[in-house]
Each structure stands twice: as C-alpha cells, then as structure tokens.
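User: Could you walk me through two proteins back to back? I'd like the raw sequence and the structure tokens for each, with a short line separating them so I can tell where one ends and the next begins.

Assistant: Of course. Protein one, sequence then structure:
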Amino acid sequence: MVKTASVIFDWELYHLGIYPLDIKGLMGIILSPFIHGSFSHLISNSLPLLVLGTALFYFYREVAFRVFILGLLITGLWVWVFARPSYHIGASGVLYSLAAFLFVSGIIRRHPRLMALSMLVAFLYGGMVWGIFPVREHISWESHLMGMISGALLALFYREHGPQRPLYSWEIEEIEETDPDSSESSDTGNGTSFFYTEGKN
C-alpha cells in the first residue's frame, strides 16, 4: 500500500529510512521496513518475509511476537549506529533476522522438527549469506549483517522458551534414577509431555 501510494502521488519516501547517527534518522527504525525503492525490491522482501514470518508464528508462537519486534528494533538501532551515512530502506534487515533466528534456534534446540525447519531455511535462503558482504554499493549490507546477528542472538536468548526437544524413554529413566521424586510433567509445545527434574526446563 505504501509503495503504491508513493507511485500514485509521486511521493519520495526514502527520507523515512534509517539515516545513521542523525536524530531524524531514528524514526526509520520503525518506518524503513515499509519503504522500498521499487516493486521488485518490495516483492523480493515480501515473499520471503511471508514464508519466514509464517514459520516463526507457527513453530515458535510463544515467543514469535517478541522475536519479531525485537529483531526489528535491534537491527534498526544497530544500523543507525554502525552503518554508512546514507538512507537505509526496506525490510531486508527483519528478513535476515527471522532467517537467522529460525536456523540457529532449530540447531541449538536439537528438536527434530525444528532442525528440519532449519535445514529448509538453509536450503531456501542459504544464498542470503552473501548479502552480508559489501559487494554491491547500493545494497544495505549493514542491514543484512545486523539482522543476521540479531536473529542469532535472539535464538540464543530464547533457547529455553517455546518448543523444546522431547525426552526419550531412556532419558526419562535416567532422570528418574537421578531424582526419583521428580514427577512433574512439561509440554514440549507440540503435544508431547515429558518428565523433568525440578528446576530444569
């Protein structure tokens, strides 16, 4: 809607992007994901954002909203602090943050379904990694890099929240042998319950 309106009314909206170390550029942290240079730029961000955003809210519904908002804010703030003195627009920083979160989170949780999701993200969007390098001058590689770092850090920060790896029968027996009094159950987030030692997630 924003891009269509800018074309119809001949608006130049690039000044709503992030401009590093400028107070006026701070509003771009919130507004820049809605500003795109062309329809091809918009589509190249929107389709992956739809796929990755759907995966985030389906598999990580407990923390999805926080991860999405924090990824947007942290990425934008870091771009404002560290990027080149130019207007940075587009939702690619958020896109990189989501991709990094989904990939890293699935690996460190060692949950079969989430690891499969990590591999799918790597297969579909693994080529994005080249976007973090300053190869093309007009591309905000800083947004890509900051988004990837923020997504990975959020995956580490929220690693004990949301779906967890289910415990197998031999692991449950080991826990019961270690602490026979532990009889509380916890849900893995996908309908599978398991027993855990008091104080462990």
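----
Protein two, same layout:
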Amino acid sequence: MTPGWPVTLSHGSVGLRPVRRRDATAWSRLRRENSAWLAPWDATLPPEAGPPAGSTAAVIGSLRRRARRGLTMPFAVTWDGELVGMLTVSNITWGSARWATVGYWVSRSHAGRGITPTALALVSDHLFTTVGLHRVEVSIRPENVASLRVVEKLGFADVGLARRYLHIAGDWRDHRIFQLLTEDVHGRVVDRLGS
C-alpha cells in the first residue's frame, strides 16, 4: 500500500476522500448527467482494447484493488460533502523516478467554483509532503481551456506536446504535459489558490 493512503483531505468546501463502493449510484448519475460535458475530455478504449470494464461498481472495485496494491489513489471530489467529481492519482512510480499522474473531472453544475484547482493543489501537497513523490504530472488536451487555467494557476510547468497521447472520443488525441516538482514548491501548493 502507498504511504499516505487512504486519506481524506479538505480545504474550505472542497474535500477529497477515497472513493467508496456506495458512491456507485451517485457517480453513475453524475456521469450520465454530464456525459456531453465530459465527452471531449474523457479517455475511451480503442477498439483493439475490447469492451469497457462494465458497471460503475466494477470500475470502483477495480480502482480500490489497485489502490490497495499502491498503484493508484482514487478520490471522490466533494463540495460541502456532496460528490461532485473524481480525481485519480495513477501511474505511481517509485525507485529513481518517484512521480505520478493526476486526472480529474467535476460536474458542470459545480464548474467555476474553484473545486478542481483546490483538489489538485490538495493532492499535490499530499503527494509531495506525505507520500514522498518528486514530480506530479497532468496531461491536458490543448483545446481544454478550463483545465489549462487550472495548471497555470497552480504553477505547473508546460513540458511540451505529446502527440497522439491518449485515446479520446474514438481517436488518439494530442495532449500538453504539465509537471510540478517538489523543489518548485515553496510552502504549499494550496497557498497558490489565492494568487
């Protein structure tokens, strides 16, 4: 199991907690209500990968098993205790690399409230200070202006363009790669929210 997992993090009205099996109904409802909102950014499986994992409950079960093995940290994102999105730390790598990738989404009804930058700041601080990682990476489609603002606000550095990086909406899509290194942070990442 990864150091610092499971954990609950919060700042103001924004909370992060481990995803639970009982989140399946609310998660399914949010995904259904936000399908058009999330479709341009959501990873999809290429045809050769076979069918998707199945039900939301099955996906949550898989995430929880991967978390127990120290491979991921699947967080429910909450606003005043209500599930409004997800943030997943994945590709946790140890050894001489000590880095991870973070992906996230939030419901359209809660967009624009600062939830995503707060969640990313909270998890980045946790990964650097408690877990002991050196680098946090976020990949974003160049067209995703809202997500680009999130990493800019938090001081993530643009590493460059990764061509045909991830399968989304039926094709391989380019992404910009952003990183934050522990030595780039003086104080806490969450303190950057006010700037």
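The chain is about 30% helix and 35% strand.

Let me know if you want the two compared in more detail.
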